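re: ur question from earlier - yeah i can do the single chain one, its not a big deal. heres the input i used so u can compare w yours
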Amino acid sequence: MSSRFLLTGASGFLGSIIQEQLAIQEHDIFAIGRSGSGGCRKDIAKPFNFDKVNSFDFVIHAAGKAHSVPKSEEAKNEFYRVNLEGTKNLCRALDSLDQLPKGFIFVSTVAVYGVDEGSNINEQHALNGITPYAESKVLAEKWLSHWAMENNVTLGILRLPLVVGRNPPGNLGAMIQGIKSGRYLSIGQANARKSMVWAEDVARIIPFLGENGGTYNLTDGHHPTFGELEAKISKAMGKKNPKKVPFWVAEKLARIGDLFGDRFPINSSKLGKITSTLTFDDSKARTELGWSPTSILSIAEKLI
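and the output i got, formated as tokens:
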């Protein structure tokens, strides 16, 4: 049955895919974002109201600030302004409508756990995230939990790892571009595993989550290694596997990068992330939501 969805962050990477998939499912979508794509232009970091709208069946809150390292207090505060205060502004705008939504889906992140390495981390893990990005998401989750309980709104929280789609952003996007240009180097054994999830899978499960609620990790279930990703992406491009550089060489280069900052392609922080396993357990979603994800390695050709 068709439902009416409010979607924030519609102009973002994941938001645009969610909007596309909801349209395929023939749902009615009212999208808000900074570009105004498919609905209206709103900056949720500032208080706002809905114009000529009475109600929504479900809200998908995918807008947020991520993918950057703050270098000033102002930049740090921007995470809280968008991710926490923006969430509050959205809910206050909903409070002014004739009727509140039945369900609210919040797109959060596995960064809330505050871990840099580990295996099969589940939803019961403490929320130890201390970076501005992670902490702002933790605070938003907690604020939403109180708001939803007080207003009898079903709350679903998705804690996502790296979200993958065609031409993905972040480190995976950099890997793809590096392999394409021939300037990518594989580091050490390249056997660190990382959780990731196919964006279209996330979009397809959202209507079900809106009805049922709960907090869930979502992954592709395989948690590919960097070596597996490099090989699959290279094959999909018709390229040879990337040349390898010993870990000790990469470690020395990373120390140089620590001195040069963003002008250098690698630093100790990036090296640590590349060479450390970090995976999350999605068995709760499999049991309660019927989550049956796509293996990223099986669709590598769709990434490029």
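The longest strand covers residues 103-109. not sure if urs matches, ping me
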